[in-house]
UniProtKB/TrEMBL annotation:
Residues 1-17 form the signal peptide. This is Uncharacterized protein DUF4331. It comes from Flavobacterium limicola. Keywords: Signal. Pfam families: DUF4331.
Amino acid sequence: MLLGLSLVAVSGLILVAADHIDAPATMSGDAGDITDVYAFQGQNTSNLVFAVNTQGLLSPNATGAATFKDNVMVEINIDNNGDNVEDLVIQAIKRDDKMYFFGPVAPGTTGTSSTVKTAAASGSVTISKYGTAALTAEQNGMKFFAGPRDDPFFFDLGRFQAILGGTATGFNNPGTDTFAGTNVMSIVVEVPKSMLGSSSTVGVWAETKKKQ
């Protein structure tokens, strides 16, 4: 995902993938399964918002029992010099009923292994519960949210399969949203652009990593 920091709308946002279940063994409820990653300019145009959604296809009945896991860290990677290597990371880790955030900060190591940047603690928020008002927190110029949300992604899977099978030639308008009525577990961070470096464009991707 590439994002121009000077954009005044999200029309220039390039989304490269959406992943709502990796394989039959990776079903809803797996805290490490990322469905989508979003980055967009905040209502305050001096800020950038990052959202990472996990545990796709949660039914309303399953959402109440869905939780983030203490041994799974969500890491947002930010490349601000165009070399496709993370220059900054934002880390989110659950402890009890709160989500704790670290960064943006230079990573201790790049790639698939990470160390928690405890010296760069930026804030925390109480994790919202399903069916209750969303809880947010604001610290150090940043805003935070963690909890269940309606899945914002739209895709007509049935029509897509029909196109692949040769029984349809294109999508309907409007289509049928396969993800309507399903939920995800979301982590959202709003960050001043000034914390992300001086580049006018950043690359963004996210990972979930389990404690070893």
